[in-house]
Write a structure and sequence with these properties.
Layout: E1 2-6, H1 18-31, E2 38-43, E3 55-59, H2 67-80, E4 87-90, E5 105-108, H3 113-120, H4 127-143, E6 146-149, H5 152-164, E7 172-174, E8 193-198, H6 206-218, E9 225-230, H7 237-241, E10 246-248, H8 254-263, E11 267-269, H9 278-285, E12 290-293, H10 297-302, E13 310-311, H11 316-327, H12 331-344, H13 347-365
Parallel strand pairs: 1-2, 1-4, 2-3, 4-5, 5-6, 6-7, 8-9, 9-10, 11-12, 12-13
Length: about 375
């Protein structure tokens, strides 16, 4: 089986979606080890590249981290390169309107959170930005022959979008994704704090968390130190600066972030919408339980018995009840969940699911 993989649209030094490039790297590393599969990647001078001796690379002699280079390359790459393959794979989930190929096009569509922003946070982007990217998303979904996605929740998001805009959806298969630390067997000594991956993105609900955390502290409730990793929204920076129970950490490299997460007693993840919920699975893979919003993708992906750690954003008190419940978990209980999640979301498991989905589809197509 031969597969062309389009990577020229991934410029990690400029993209908002760095997680997609991390996912792509892990996936392609695993796929490159499959003897039955031959891959050919299309990259640019500025884009992400896998750099594997088992993968043939076609490098275009210009950059795609600028508007002109990106538009031309996205729309003309099948005219510029002519790989003899059985299918094309688009890990970023977009397929340009003018791009044409006689072989099946398979896309990894991660979520439709952009549509969520259009509905609930329209001021976060310009009107022209929404028009361009929403139309790009809609026409990509309509034109893929097969969509792979990262959760049943994300699949429902895609189907809802199709229903809303009268799009006939292609076949959609849930392959989930892989997580870092899925092979970590270290036992970490726990600290006296909990951690939150802070963000200025409104759907991450960092401001909601901080306001309710401070209210609880003001009531005299004894809580662990709350350590913040990431960017804090401007309107709640004063809460961080004026509270003894909250600590904003400086920039953390990957190693320090991993240790900080591994030694935390819990991860707090109040995000209202996700396609997968990667930080929560990463946390459990390091032996740190998570508190998360119920009925989101995180709830599905973790699949924790009795949904321990789930809370309701409309009931702030439920966050602290969830936190109390996960802080009572025994080491053995956490280890059981850790082992199950590490096996399910390892790079090998993810690579096998994607490989089998593509192989089965090509077999039916032929």
């Amino acid at each position: 089986m031969k597969l062309a993989v389009y990577l020229a649209d991934q410029n990690p030094h400029r993209d908002r979606t760095l997680g997609i490039t991390e996912m792509t790297a892990a996936l392609l590393d695993e796929l490159a080890s499959k003897e039955e599969l031959k891959m050919e990647t299309i990259v640019s001078k500025s884009s992400f590249a896998i750099n594997d001796v088992n993968v043939l690379e076609k490098k275009l002699p210009w950059r795609t981290d600028n508007m002109l280079g990106r538009l031309l390359t996205d729309n003309l790459h099948t005219l510029l390169v002519h790989p003899e393959v059985d299918a094309w794979l688009y890990p970023k989930g977009y397929i340009p309107f003018f791009m044409r190929t006689q072989k099946p096009c398979i896309g990894i569509v991660h979520d439709t959170i952009l549509l969520w922003y259009y509905d609930f946070y329209r001021n976060e982007r310009s009107k022209i930005d929404y028009v361009y990217w929403l139309n790009f998303m809609k026409q990509s979904i309509a034109r893929f022959d097969l969509i792979l996605t990262i959760s049943e929740t994300a699949k429902k998001q895609i189907l809802d979008l199709c229903s809303r805009f009268s799009i006939t959806p292609p076949p959609i298969e849930v392959t989930y994704e892989s997580v870092r630390y899925a092979d970590d067997t270290t036992i970490y000594e726990k600290g006296t704090y909990v951690v939150h991956v802070a963000s200025k993105a409104p759907h991450k609900k960092t401001a909601w968390l901080l306001k309710n955390w401070v209210k609880q502290l003001e009531k005299g409730t004894k809580l662990p130190i709350l350590k913040l990793v990431g960017s804090v929204p401007d309107d709640v920076k004063d809460l961080v600066e004026n509270s003894r129970g909250i600590e904003k950490l400086p920039y953390l490299d990957d190693h320090t972030y991993k240790e900080t997460l591994a030694k935390a007693r819990a991860l707090l993840m109040p995000s209202e919408v996700e396609g997968f919920g990667l930080p929560a699975v990463e946390a459990y893979s390091l032996g740190t339980p998570a508190c998360y919003v119920k009925n989101t993708a995180v709830d599905e992906v973790l699949d924790i018995p009795e949904h321990l750690g789930a809370f309701d954003l409309s009931k702030p008190e439920s966050l602290f009840e969830a936190l109390e419940s996960v802080l009572k978990l025994s080491e053995d209980e956490i280890t059981i969940s850790k082992a199950r999640l590490q096996q399910t979301y390892s790079e090998k498991s993810f690579g096998d699911r994607v490989f089998n989905s593509i192989k089965d589809y090509i077999a039916k197509y032929e």
